[in-house]
Specification:
The protein has helices spanning 20-24, 33-36, 40-51, 62-72, 88-95, 103-125, 136-160, 184-198, 215-232, 237-249, 294-298, 313-320, 333-338, 359-362, 378-382, 395-408, 412-427, 437-451, 458-465, 468-474, 482-485, 492-497, and strands spanning 78-80, 274-278, 309-311, 339-340, 369-370, 390-394. The chain has 502 residues and is mainly alpha-helical. It has 3 domains: 20-210, Serine Threonine Protein Phosphatase 5, Tetratricopeptide repeat (Alpha Horseshoe); 294-389, no CATH class; 392-485, no CATH class. Strands 1-3 form a two-stranded antiparallel ribbon.
């Protein structure tokens, strides 16, 4: 997306304990919210502000330090790197000793609600722009995108917190901040309604607007929402699965990318597989910056990183469990495209597959390290900042979700070709063996484990399937309790500032 970050006169929903003066005092030489929305350009700038909160990416540092600790540190497919242990508020997310005062979960809650409030302002205020000042088609599209973003931010929250506050209006007064929690069913119903409105979006955008939400993104997340609800609301499982399939079937005109690594190293941004992708750029025109230090956070110390996150042995075993049966004569190709580890492939002195070096040239300690989301060149790796895009929803996910829906609906034979397509294109792997419900269910879990490391779907998958207790026990996470830790608690800051929660 062409980012124009515009700072709106706005207070953050749920964290307004000191905003009275801000809300009542007007500066005579600055635009106020009530008279900002005059032209089409204002609507576009307001929408850009709503996009800016995606995945906490507006902050160069917090982007990595909030997203991955909160979403990934709980997962059994990662372990903490050496430097992570210097940050107790990160470590407690991994060992489940956190409280509702944890800084990272509080920031996660905060930035998603800020995004919601920006989206709410767009939905309400763009409608007030005079007809002569905005193209009606553009007005409709901008409002539809705001509905998508409002759904997306609520979805991020409901996936991580057991109960959330549904914010369906722009928070402009102190009184509006006091609102009760909604039930999960109410929250999900609101989300699918918003995504339904967003399906009116166009299927694609111009080259100058790549990254903006499309109808394909709306349908993909709608399918994900209904799939999740199918397990949470067991009495409506069949109906929700049916709705999930309807939505996922409408995600068309995408293809799997055969060069798996290219989607995550900045060499193939917004690929034909990408449905919704977080945009970054090294462009620093007018003093703005759209780059991150995510490669430092994800990279091991041997790869010029800070050593915060590493693959677990469980993940390595999962990649290798089928043996060296790929058409390449090696393990599943996704292993080599996701992780650097000691093996003949990465120690071939003629190939230099680790940034021109062998694995042993760089690693004294033979431990695996993530390759995914690191720049594809040595120069890029050594830069202090990077502009690697983050695919948030890929077509591979749609195919595997469709396979799961078909299997749960009793159409196991329809699930197998979808699984095999992902295996073939991304893994260079032969067709799966087995054709029963249980065999397909196990294969889907295997494929999702090795397809999505660092894309942070594993926790939601485990919870959806009721496998959290067994997975955490197998990972040695003795501090885990499904009653306490399946979701994060509502942050203490929200409780202290919201009269209807304390």
């Amino acid at each position: 997306m062409k980012k124009i970050i515009y700072i709106l006169s706005i207070c953050m929903a749920g964290f307004l304990t000191s905003c009275d003066d801000f809300l009542t005092v007007e500066s005579p030489d600055q635009l106020q919210t009530k008279d900002f929305w005059r032209h089409q350009s204002d609507a576009e700038q307001g929408l850009s502000a709503a996009y800016s909160q995606l995945e906490h990416s507006i902050d160069t540092w917090l982007f990595a330090e909030v997203k991955w600790p909160v979403e990934a540190y709980r997962e059994d497919i990662v372990i903490l790197g050496n430097d992570a242990f210097n940050y107790p508020n990160w470590v407690e997310l991994s060992d489940f000793s956190y409280t509702n005062g944890n800084s990272q979960t509080s920031l996660y809650w905060q930035s998603n609600y800020r995004g919601i409030n920006f989206a709410n302002q767009v939905i309400e205020r763009v409608a007030e722009i005079p007809d002569e000042n905005i193209d009606p088609t553009i007005r409709t599209q901008i409002v539809s995108e705001a509905h998508f973003l409002r759904a997306y931010y609520h979805m991020k929250l409901i996936l991580n917190f057991e109960q959330i506050i549904v914010r369906d209006e722009y928070v402009a007064t102190q009184e509006q901040t006091h609102k009760a929690l909604s039930s999960r069913e109410e929250a999900w119903q609101f989300i699918v309604g918003e995504l339904g409105l967003a399906t009116a979006l166009p299927p694609s955008h111009s080259i100058n607007n790549i990254g903006r939400a499309t109808s394909g993104a709306a349908y993909a997340y709608l399918g994900f929402a209904y799939l999740t609800r199918a397990y949470e609301e067991s009495g409506k499982k069949d109906a929700h699965l049916s709705e999930a399939l309807k939505a996922l079937e409408k995600v068309t005109n995408y293809e799997l990318v055969d060069n798996f690594a290219s989607m995550f190293d900045a060499s193939n941004k917004n690929s034909k597989e990408s449905i919704f992708e977080l945009q970054f750029s090294m462009n620093s025109a007018s003093g703005a910056n759209y780059y991150t230090q995510a490669h430092r956070w994800i990279g091991s110390s041997e790869l010029a990183g800070w050593d915060e996150i590493l693959p677990s042995q469980f993940l390595m075993d999962e990649y290798m469990k089928e043996g060296e049966i790929a058409t390449t004569g090696r393990y599943d190709s996704r292993l080599y495209n996701t992780i650097f580890y000691r093996c003949d492939y990465f120690n071939d002195p003629d190939a230099g597959r680790v940034y021109g070096y062998t694995y042993d040239d760089l690693f004294d300690d033979p431990r695996p390290a993530f390759r995914k989301f690191l720049p594809g060149t040595l120069d890029g790796l050594l830069e202090n900042y990077c502009a690697v895009n983050i695919p948030l929803m890929r077509y591979a996910n749609v195919l595997l979700m469709k396979a799961e829906v078909h299997n749960e609906m009793g159409n196991t034979s329809l699930a197998i070709p979808l699984i095999n397509e992902v295996r073939d294109v991304h893994g260079d792997m032969p067709a799966m063996t087995g054709n029963t419900y249980e065999a397909v269910k196990a294969q889907i879990e295997h494929e999702r484990i090795i397809e999505f490391p660092l894309e942070n779907f594993r926790w939601y998958d485990l919870r959806r399937w009721g496998k959290l207790p067994a997975a955490m026990q197998a990972a040695g996470r003795t501090g885990f309790s499904v009653e306490k830790h399946a979701f994060y608690p509502v942050p203490l800051k929200e409780i202290n500032s919201n009269d209807l929660l304390n």
